[in-house]
Amino acid sequence: MDAQKTGKLINFLRSKKGITQKELATLINVSDKAVSKWERGDGCPDVGILPLLAQALETDVDSLLNGEITRREITQEEAEAMLKEMEAKDPANGLSNIDRQFVPAEAKIKFYDFKRPDYFGRNQLRDIWLCFTILCEKLKSDFAGIRKDLYSIQVSSVDQLDNDEFMQSIPQLSFFYSYDYNNNGFAIEVDPQLGKQLLRQDLKKYPEFLEYDVELLQIAYINSFSKRMQELLYENTNKTISLEEFEKPLTQKTLLPRSTNEPNGQMCMLVSLEIETDNGKGYINIQLNYYYCINILSKYGFFNHDDLKLHQLTNIKAKHFDNNCFVEFGRFMPDTFAFEPGNIFVTDLNYNQPLNVLVGKDVKFKGQVVAVDENFGIRISELLPENKIIHYDEEHYIALRLGGRYLSKEDEAKVQEGTVLALDLECGSPLDIIQDGKCLARGEVVIVDDTFGVRIID
Fold first, then answer.
1. Is pTM, for the whole model, over 0.70?
2. DSSP string of 372-429, one letter each residue
């Protein structure tokens, strides 16, 4: 923090609000001499006072740390324009011009971003939800009769997102504990107000957040919480390693979560626990590193649905139609492929370009990948005219296929721009690599310099 720059910013924002140094000091429970010292650049506010100071000056902590305003407030005209744009789109997901004639009316449709794929399936998220629900029941027993100001604790959500999104979703200053997160571990974050209440501190009387508070909360609650959590997770594994080998140690504790330097763009699973107190609701967030889920939980059998395959039975009297409509990243010369796990092959298709939608051997449509509930889908963005239809009649080829479905002649005639077609492949699943009509391998979609590629899995 640059004392001179921060001091000038405090002076500017205070003058803009039209309040005196004494009035600002009263708002944040410090002396007017302290405010004067900051504005002269002779010292900086303590880290613990920054949230309260930012609130009083109607700014954010990052701006005070940087000594300059880091975000611009939008104008009324811009806000109205954004509102109109949002109203013109599907209110649930931001998609515009959606034709739902081939998907259930209640289906949730959203763009699928391959830069932020769904790495965890529905069963894995459910397993984590059930485990933490049991943990909440155990915590209720711990609190019963001891903390009458804590009314309830329950799982609020289990989701997947990347580290950057998580950091943006939590307060800039909060109680943060890393259990070797950057090395296949996890992290625990406690909302600042909830942390204060757990410590039985009145936030109005003691607005400052001190490093001592972080240590105190760790001793009073976090140590036992993390131990209970890890023991419960371990109980649901195959126990081929000892509990001591399974447990992750506390490696960092801080009031500034962003200082932990978590890897940018890396996915994680986020479990949010909602705690209702006599002062409202607060949250404890448990951030499970992607590799913790894969190399620890999945490897040792926690996700017991990994090998479960559901097969749909077909009525013998029902008409069965094989897929004739496929979504592909392209077709390629077979001599350019070597089917070895780990190999990455880059296509000539840019990340922002639509995919091919084939009916039979003809590319008749172009489309953008979406998620239709749990499965991939395609939103038609272009109907190719007769003279631009691509016909594949090569006998030998490699196709990267995202999924398929059956499309009758009558339904094909109804397809228009905006039509959404659900596919038979679950989001996050590997795509099929087809050689001469047969699936010989599976691969994971990757982005290489904004170009689609595929990494061979098996």
1. no
2. ETTEEEEEEEEEPPGGG-EE---SS-EEEEEEEE---HHHHHH--TTBEEEEEEETTP
